[in-house]
Amino acid sequence: MEKSCSHQCQSCCMPLQTEKAGDCRGTEKDGSKSEKWCSLCYKDGEFIGGDCTLDEMKVIVANAMEKEGINWFIRKMALWQLPHLERWKNK
Asked: What integer is the mean pLDDT of 35-44?
């Protein structure tokens, strides 16, 4: 895994660990914590909600960040980064 993105979900760009929420990692089939995916995207070794598209993920991320009151610049940077994450690189 690339060191520069190792602290972010490789699907949605959410931090895998936050001061406010704590450990936000999803789970593998064996119940262990994922090192790549957050709990909003990944559970029991599978992506939650099936296989969404990159465009669908952009809408999900933009709406969630806006709801949290995250400023437009940070939202724009997150959306720019999505296609470069592991889940979307080869799609």
From this structure: 96
